[in-house]
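Lab notebook: predicted structure, single chain.

Context: the supervisor wants predicted structures on file for every construct in the current expression panel, including those that have not yet been purified. This is the next one on the list. No modifications to the sequence; it matches the entry in the shared construct table.
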Amino acid sequence: MPILPWPGQQLPRYLTQPEVLRFFAAIDSPRDRALFALMYHYGLRVGEVLLLTRGDVDLERRRLLVRRLKRGVWSEQVLFEATAAILSAYFEGLSLAPAAPLFRGRFGPLKRRRIQALFCRYRDEAGLPPHATTHSFRHSIATHLLDAGMSLEFVQDHLGHQSIRSTSIYARITDRHRAAVFEKLQSSPWIVQPGTPAATPAPAAAPKGDLL
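Prediction complete. Output recorded below exactly as produced.
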């Protein structure tokens, strides 16, 4: 039986791959690039970014400890090579104790409002839609993972969802593989395409009795 989204659940808004590239192209700060790379690649909420410490990043093993909110599943994630390189650039000349917050400002750890303000600044500089928020990164990576051929179960684990029902909503908005399937259906003799020239009839379907 298929897993359906919650009744009344709306389709999430996400950024396309070109839009994400434009967002990062607008960032000059190594700190901010590392901050938003983690948010995008791991679908981190702002509150989850605030939980990260220097000790949660292991560049030698290329691992990241993610503490999820909203009863999400905590996990150790593999660092994308690009994200590891961005974090290495951020750590250059920076001395942080293992228990220190990963991202700091002039007067201490970055605050929620500051992260949201930075996102809006880069979003506007990149010319992205005004409805995009920091949470759009979470929707974006979920959609992009499905575009890349990952299973719903993989996306569920990656986002820390307790139930795959929460993940299934993304299967309704990604169309990369759906479009590929429809390309094959265009030439299938089993699907009638009204308005096309008459073609060789499709082979007769097997009688139902033959399927028993």
